[in-house]
Design goal:
501 residues; alpha/beta; Immunoglobulin-like; TIM Barrel; 2 domains; eight-stranded parallel β-barrel; five-stranded antiparallel beta sheet; elongated
């Protein structure tokens, strides 16, 4: 394959555009602009399944690739799908975006705020989120983490079933809206981290695998076939996606979803190690299984999610012991997690999209837990992650919602949720119902004093030294954590907390 050939559509000037695609499964490939004359231009092969052409076209025009003279499909590296996964791709000139530089943040200064564009504001768009950014900066947040914005089936979803990874979801406002959001965040001093998914393709992937073998049957993920990163073009497809976000949209960091489901040990260099090399100045955070430190120890990532902190804290407060929670609940183990180093390489939380949204009804923690949860998290020296609304005590749930356009996939999703929760399955909200999505939008109704508590804890956090000593006792149901002259005293039996100085 031509070395690092860039894939997609790239405007060269006002009248010409460069198109390039990997399509080894097709005998011929042409480009058709969606216009009155519907003319086609053939792409010439470069070798290893890569084809290219420079044609008369401009930013804003829609196009499709035509495989073998008959099958019209969107560009696998589309920058915009204005009418969704089954419509044409649109040429986008990202050079037109004016985005302010991001803040210079040391890893130890990170306070991450995870949000879902569709439910974070009444508008459900990137532009709708902008009005709330300044309040986050004033609270003490230093980075917002956007759940995936890549185009997925339908309008509503969490984003982890993305299909066109380089195309900002049209329901969120498309690529120009994301550029405006990043610019606005940077102007109030917030870095932007984007959640990206390189472990599988969402429903409708046949429109991409028609071009070539993106997916392998050698491995299986919980969500379908694994991506085949032994193929150079598939590696480029993923890494160039990461480069697009960080170069063209000036996004400061990437959070990689479920890296345990990215299989590439057959290659001389793991694809995620190569991604690290190609993005030396980008903050990289991995979601990895508890106890596996490969992202930070082998691939050179900056940090990884530490779900064990959430699990220990949650079980200590709720007593829930089903599923994976059965391994947790020892306060001595919770205390040890406060002493884990290097502190800037572990991201801890009390709530996140998984731990709230993957409950049967997506319910938030009980109100009498919130102060203890806040103090337990923000007193920890590791990187804290807040989930949208927790800083003021949002009571609306964050439920699992989808909008699959394929009826068979929609039915399978409903049935899968019911099966997952057994006898409780009958009470699980219908993921395909629009109301499930609407019920998950933030109400922004605040519990008295909670926002002020978060602000105070974040101010204190900035004053404390990075090291901690801690002890937990299951007999007394107490955890004590000391950082410098300050001590956290958490009473899990009575659900009270105090910080002594």
């Amino acid at each position: 394959m031509p070395d690092r050939a860039r894939f997609g559509a790239f405007p060269l000037d006002d009248d010409r555009c460069e198109f390039r695609v990997w399509a080894p499964a097709a005998g011929s490939v042409s480009i058709r602009l969606v216009s009155e004359d519907a003319s086609e231009t053939s792409l010439r092969p470069l070798g290893d399944g890569v084809c290219e052409v420079t044609a008369e076209a401009r930013a804003g025009q829609d196009y499709v690739f035509v495989l073998d003279g008959e099958r019209e499909l969107p560009d696998p590296c589309s920058r915009f799908q204005p009418v969704g996964i089954r419509g044409p791709s649109r040429i986008v000139d990202t050079r037109a975006y004016e985005i302010a530089p991001g803040p210079a943040l040391a890893p130890e200064d990170l306070v991450v705020y995870e949000l879902h564009i569709g439910t974070f504001s009444d508008e459900g768009t990137c532009d709708g989120a902008i009005q709330h950014l300044e309040a986050l900066a004033e609270l003490g947040v230093t980075a917002v983490e956007l759940m995936p914005v890549a185009t997925f089936p339908g309008d509503r979803g969490w984003g982890y079933d993305g299909l066109y990874l380089s195309a900002v979801h049209p329901a969120y406002g498309g690529p120009a809206a994301l550029a405006r959001l990043v610019d606005a965040a940077h102007r109030v001093g917030l870095a932007v981290i984007l959640d990206v998914v390189y472990n599988h393709l969402g429903p409708g992937s046949h429109a991409i695998t028609a071009f070539g073998p993106y997916v392998t049957d050698r491995y299986e993920t919980p969500w379908g076939g694994a991506l085949d990163f032994t193929r150079r073009a598939v590696r480029e497809w993923a890494i160039q996606n990461a480069e697009l976000w960080t170069r063209d949209f000036r996004i400061d960091g990437l959070r990689l979803d479920a890296v345990f489901a990215i299989f590439d040990d057959e290659s001389p260099q793991h694809v995620l190690a190569e991604l690290r090399e190609r993005l030396p100045d980008t903050l990289l955070i991995a979601e990895e299984e508890v106890g596996n430190l490969r992202p930070i120890e082998e691939w050179g990532f900056d940090a990884q999610w530490a779900d064990d902190f959430h699990h220990e804290l949650h079980v200590a407060l709720t007593g829930e012991s089903h599923g994976y929670y059965g391994e947790y609940g020892d306060l001595a183990n919770l205390a040890r997690l406060y002493e884990r180093t290097p502190v800037a390489r572990f991201v801890c939380c009390s709530q996140n999209h998984d731990q709230v949204g993957n409950r049967a009804a997506g319910d938030r923690p009980a109100t009498d837990e919130l102060e203890l949860r806040a103090a337990a998290l923000l007193f920890a020296p590791q990187v804290p992650l807040l989930f949208m609304g927790e800083e003021y005590g949002e009571r609306r749930p964050f439920q699992f919602f989808t909008d699959h356009v394929d009826p068979a996939i929609a039915d399978a999703t409903r049935e899968g949720r019911r099966r997952e929760f057994g006898f409780a399955g009958e009470n699980v909200p219908d993921p395909q119902a629009e109301q499930t999505f609407l019920d998950s939008r933030l109400s922004r109704e605040e519990l008295p004093g909670l926002r002020e508590l978060y602000a105070d804890l974040l101010r204190l956090r900035r004053e404390l030294p990075p090291d901690a000593t801690a002890a937990g006792n299951d007999g007394t149901r107490m955890v004590r954590v000391r950082r410098g002259a300050a001590e956290l005293v958490a009473d899990f039996g009575n659900r009270t907390v105090e910080i002594r100085r």
